[in-house]
Design goal:
Blueprint lengths: L18 H18 L11 E3 L5 E3 L15 H12 L2 H11 L1 H5 L1 H6 E7 L2 E6 L2 H9 L1 H12 L6 E5 L24
Length: about 180
């Protein structure tokens, strides 16, 4: 301990208390970290720490930006599912029919409806022969709109038809022949 004059006996360090003890502990920790190659006092290098199994786990809260742990949009999930399973072409074909008014516009959609899509040829039925003629003149613009909406290569050409002509064949006991034209004298 100390002698009567307040001097420390030789070979013993003074007993540290309070802030001096904390400083000594910090210096020892820095020296130990320096010896092991880690830097101390510069913050954490990453927000991850090792688990006992060797896996990594994030600590703390996620930030304001998007994170892998955040809920995903349903459309994004279904799109990636369709892509992974090879359904992209079928989904694109379905978009032509499902979003017809949005793809070609309300004016054209109110006068024409898509019927079938086979071998990249879209069959469209117009409500009148005048609209069928108009759609044939706009065929390249309609194809451009479809390719922009669902992707290139889904629809390569259009087959536009007008309304079906009325049938003169009526009843069970129909007689073959020219039909009503032969009675007009």
């Amino acid at each position: 301990m100390t002698d009567q004059q307040g001097a420390q006996p030789a070979g013993k360090e003074p007993e540290l208390r309070g802030i001096d003890l904390a400083r000594r502990a910090l210096e020892e920790a820095r020296a130990a970290a320096k010896a092991s190659g880690k830097s101390v006092g510069q913050g954490r290098s990453s927000p991850q720490r090792k688990l006992r199994t060797g896996a990594r786990r994030r600590s703390g809260w996620s930030g304001a930006g998007p994170d892998a742990r955040d809920p995903q949009l349903f459309g994004k999930l279904t799109g990636s599912l369709a892509k992974n399973r090879g359904w992209s072409t079928k989904v694109a074909e379905g978009m032509v029919f499902g979003r017809w008014a949005g793809v070609v516009g309300e004016d054209i959609a109110s006068h024409a409806t898509p019927l079938t899509l086979k071998d990249n040829v879209l069959s469209i039925a117009a409500e009148s022969t005048a609209w069928a003629t108009q759609l044939r003149m706009l065929q390249s613009q309609i194809l451009a709109k479809i390719n922009a909406a669902v992707g290139p290569g889904v629809v390569t050409s259009l087959k536009i038809t007008g309304p079906a002509a009325p049938s003169w064949r009526k009843g069970e006991r129909h007689v073959r022949g020219r039909g009503p034209r032969d009675t007009y004298g």
